[in-house]
Amino acid sequence: MAQYSRVSGTVGLITLLNPPVNALSAAVRQGIVDTMDKALSDRKVKSVVICGHNGKFCGGADIREFSSPLTGPPLIPLIQGVESAAKPVVAAIEGVALGGGLELALGCHYRIAHSKARLGLPEVHLGLLPGAGGSQRLPRLIGVPAALDLITTGRHVTGAEALQLGLVDKVTDRNTVDEAVKFALSVADQPPNSRRVSTFPCPRHPDLDALFEGAMQRVRQRARGALAPVACVQAVRAAATLPYAQGMERERELMATLFTSGQARAQQYHFFAQRAVGRWSMPSGARWDTTKPGAVHKAMVIGLGTMGRGISVALVQAGVSVVAMETNEKQLMEAKQAISSMLERGAKRRGVAPALDKIGYSSNMEPAADVDLVIEAVFEDMALKKKVFQQLSALCKPGTFLCSNTSGLDIDQLASETRHPELVVGMHFFAPAHVMKLLEVVYGSRSSPQAVATAMELGKQMGKVSVAVGNCRGFVGNRMLKPYLEQAFFLLEEGTTPEFVDQVLEEFGFAMGVFRMSDLSGLDVGWRVRKADGLLNASEGHSARIRQGCRYSPLGDLLCEQGRFGQKTGRGWYQYDKPGGRVAKPDPWLHGFLEKFRTQHGLVARRIDHQEVLERCLYALMNEGFRILEDGIAAGPEDIDVIYVLGYSWPPHRGGPMFYAGMVGLQKVLERLEHYHQEHPDIPSLKPCNLLRNLVVNGSPPVHKWREFLKKPQSQL
Ligand code: 3HC
Ligand code: NAI
């Protein structure tokens, strides 16, 4: 709803009231219509201010209403009504003005913003475009290039940047509503005719065609099959080339197409899923809202390789004091330099001073005695990690939380090396750790709720989306990756090429296909893990393509034996112009190697089509997701989907693997898995899991109902 009052004698003050972000629900829209009527019909009122309750202007349309038919007054005529008002209307922007919220402000005649307010049109992240006139008014106000940038990236700008762009008329560091009221008094006698943005001509640009071609190319490259960014460019083009009324018609058509697309549903699901994972619970019944996190003022990071450096930077940027520790002197020196320059770059981007004084370095463990939390990031080697945990347990003060960044080793085993296993949890970051938004927080069988709450809260403080998961090999993300990678290898054996598999997966929307990704992260990583698992040698009398009773592809191992570790060695599944090179080129050597391998093992290459690549890779991955749910390792499908979108470049417009399974149809996924499992009975990961069968038997309920079919989460090894 919206509240109305008259202030300073002649200013009508309208306050949007819908906590927590004053989203434009049907009731709020009705409230605006009613209060505007009041203000305009009150003869004492000379000007109007619109603001939001509790220091937040407006978070945009109410996304929860998108799944049901529209009720209440529609937004477009409402904003038109505000703009055509005969009395000056001023938007008082504090907190946020996003999406429909900013569109409402664009309909006002003046905009006063707090310097720290965040303004933006982030609809593109919800699979939409600014469909309440935003795509037509913004370019008219700030010019086409700046509008294209804001609308296609959905990025927020601060009040201060908004002033530079010409998006707002004035910025203040004081009480924004008071300033807006003063401003409204000062313009009360000025008719707002010349202030209606929809009547502005769109600023001319010397080469519109080149500008839009470039923009379209950029978004297509970034969008990876997403419709919304492309539609955003088309809508802005309409603003630049058509009269306002026709531009609005084009905006309406494009919005209608997007609104009913599966992509918008998927991205809105992702929006709510990111928030739902914060409401975690544990098998014991401990929950996010009943557990108080411990305070973390000072932390220690052990091991300053790829991960430890990024983790240190993320902690410092979150305001935590850090002792960064590394045993290898050369590595310590290099890490020091790398961390300082990452902090400097980050600070420059954010326009603040680098907090170099928040970090100290050590080549021994002693500072552990004085910290609240430790994150271990040494090599992925259980014996080494156990030793580190023993040392920490002896050194740390009582109550220090001990966390491991392991990619998949058993948290319970690490905990059992310590005197207080309840203080041990996994904090699984993703590379680069100061950039990637995902954090898997892994609770072992003895982790205390407070330890989990502390890791979850610390993740949030670092700007991450933290997902609490149970303890099992590879946790959620890497456990699901295993059958996906396996299928890709098997497909190579059966006749396809890395280029074709990657092309199919990239067309689906992954930033990188599985082989390019493997070259980037290094083939040796998986090789070492397989070695530790005793998988590298076939048992006597068995085929080289069977290990531990199941089908196994030795292709990755054979490449590693040749020193082909991927980008870092200049050769992997592709070739690169030099070690460390980034441009992957098909490698005739690899194709010859695959042919030889097939001949050696009596395999006849067959034609493998697009559908088979996609289904075998993705359905095997999804099937493992269902198993993870069945085992209670993830609390719900949202947890898996958030992990995959934020950690594994699953395209957001496809929601995540579990959401996607629902989109494809659970019945179809089940049938195709049955089909492939019949063809390959020696691949257990293709055998449809019971939960999937159970869901299909129960009529394939929508993804938000799956929790009703799940056991309570638990730790399982
Ligand atoms: N509609 C409905 N609910 C919303 C919402 C919205 N626009 N924006 C936020 N919420 C809800 C969240 O789901 C969350 O609910 P929960 O507590 O039940 O989980 C609650 O508000 C608080 O949100 P956050 O946890 O995200 O709070 P933060 O303070 O971290 O962030 C925010 C606030 C920056 C406003 C962030 O919520 C956000 O980015 N919201 C979405 C903004 C947006 O995309 N607006 C465009 C909507 S589409 C539109 O306007 C179409 C138009 O062009 C026609
Ligand atoms: P890395 O090899 O780059 O760095 C490990 C560092 O630990 C080295 O600098 C080494 O000198 C140091 N180290 C070894 N023993 C030590 C000890 N006793 N005390 C202090 N330092 C010691 O490894 P990376 O890639 O950073 O991985 C670290 C951990 O993070 C591993 O457990 C890995 O599985 C995990 N991880 C790695 C990811 C990646 O993409 N690289 C992603 C997520 C997790």
Automatic annotation (TrEMBL):
GO molecular function list: (3S)-3-hydroxyacyl-CoA dehydrogenase (NAD+) activity; delta(3)-delta(2)-enoyl-CoA isomerase activity; enoyl-CoA hydratase activity; NAD+ binding
Gene symbol of the encoding locus: EHHADH
Top-level taxonomic group: Eukaryota
Description of how the protein assembles with itself and partners: Monomer.
One GO cellular component term: peroxisome
Metabolic or biological pathway, per its Swiss-Prot or TrEMBL entry: Lipid metabolism; fatty acid beta-oxidation
Keyword Cell inner membrane among UniProt keywords: no
Organism: Oryzias latipes
Sequence ranges assigned to domain 3-hydroxyacyl-CoA dehydrogenase C-terminal in this UniProt record: 474-576, 613-710
Subcellular location: Peroxisome
Residue ranges of domain 3-hydroxyacyl-CoA dehydrogenase NAD binding in the record: 299-471
Annotated protein name in UniProt: Peroxisomal bifunctional enzyme
